[in-house]
Amino acid sequence: MLVLGIETSCDETGIALYDSAIPAPSRALLAQRLHTQAAMHEAYGGVVPELASRDHIRRLLPLLEGVLADARRSRDDIDAIAVTEGPGLVGALLVGATFAHALGFALKIPVIGIHHLEGHLLSPLMSDDPPAFPFVALLVSGGHTQLMQVTGVGRYAMLGETVDDAAGEAFDKTAKLLGLPYPGGPSLARLAESGDERAFALPRPMLHSGDLDFSFSGLKTAVATVARDAGIATAASDDRVRADLAASFQRAAVDVLVAKSMAALKGSGSKRLVVAGGVGANRLLRSELAAAVLKRGATVHFPALEWCTDNGAMIALAGALRLERDGLPERGDLAFDVAPRWSLGNE
Ligand code: KG4
Ligand code: ZN
Q: Is the pTM of this model over 0.90?
């Protein structure tokens, strides 16, 4: 079965074609294309929702044509469409959903709505060595930070989540404070590589809270306060000081993420940890988690770097796995909806 995946929930337009008849996950992905709007939003220091929606409109059709050409398939070969219907920016989601449902109507094929986080969560299954169910998942993106117990496709139980900012959001806000360009996470991580992570003492929020929840909003403020007390004007200070601040921040955030992930493994008795979402690309997080699971006799699975941030492949995969589980749905009526806020549970 050929499943077309469409992702437009934020500032990336992603399209992918997945063949669910081919068992090995990595080979089942026939083609994928991605357009990132980062350069367009950079001037504003963050995503401008209206600009994002308009750009998705311009990109979708050429990306679809490109993916079909890459895969040497035609529109008529597509059996079903999977599209991100939430959570995300409402306008951006509507563009993708309208495109998907119009295409589904024209081709007379079913369209299924996918939860964006389910896409992230299942993306490690595209690796050559996919994790088996059950596993504990650490979802760390720009909008979410959650630990989940995953027992199968559509079987997700929340173990803990952030009570305020997401980990990626904290990276982005701290990067902005240090005068780094958008998107901040990768630039902060790059700067941190040349810094001393012990230079500044920053808090590890909720490290000893006894539960699996997180809090990251205070970290950015702590960076600002520590810098102010040391008489440093963050964005204007010299590169070495900024690198030290970046490294100290990164270490604090990673320490909490690693400790809570290990507590989740311990509490659930699971031996498998799966990391997904944009912050999963962070090198310190990857190496620290790898070392920590080794000590526990457990394993950690990361998606390939290209699948950490938003893409159409993870949505096509989630669609294919749902269709495998539930079979092809009837084509419903033409009504559809998007859900800017939508919590992931058992569905
Ligand atoms: O999963 P994602 O593409 O978007 C959401 O669904 O939110 O994640 C984007 C987030 C951004 O906050 C970005 O700064 C962060 O992931 N990010 C990183 C790194 N690469 C991306 N954060 C830390 N280190 C990185 N290397
Ligand atoms: Zn995402």
A: yes
Ordered DSSP codes for 90-129: HHHHHHHHHHHHHHHHHHT--EEEEEHHHHHHHGGGGSSS
Which residues in the chain come in under a pLDDT of 50? none
142 Cα nearest atom in ligand 1: 7
- Domain span including residue 53: 2-123+307-326
CA of 117 to the centre of ligand 2 (A): 7
Residue 212, both tokens: 């699996």
**In which residue are the tokens 């990109």 written?**
59
* Cβ of residue 168 lying under 6 Å from some atom of ligand 1: yes
Same domain membership, residue 113 and residue 6: yes
Task: Give pLDDT tens digits for 279-333.
Answer: 999 999 999 999 999 999 999 999 888 899 999 999 999 999 999 999 988 877 7
Same domain membership, residue 156 and residue 91: no
| Sequence-separated (6 or more) residues with CB below 8 Å from residue 84 | 6, 7, 8, 9, 93, 96, 97, 113, 114, 115, 116, 119, 315
Asked if 60 and 12 touch (Cβ cutoff 8 Å), the reply is no
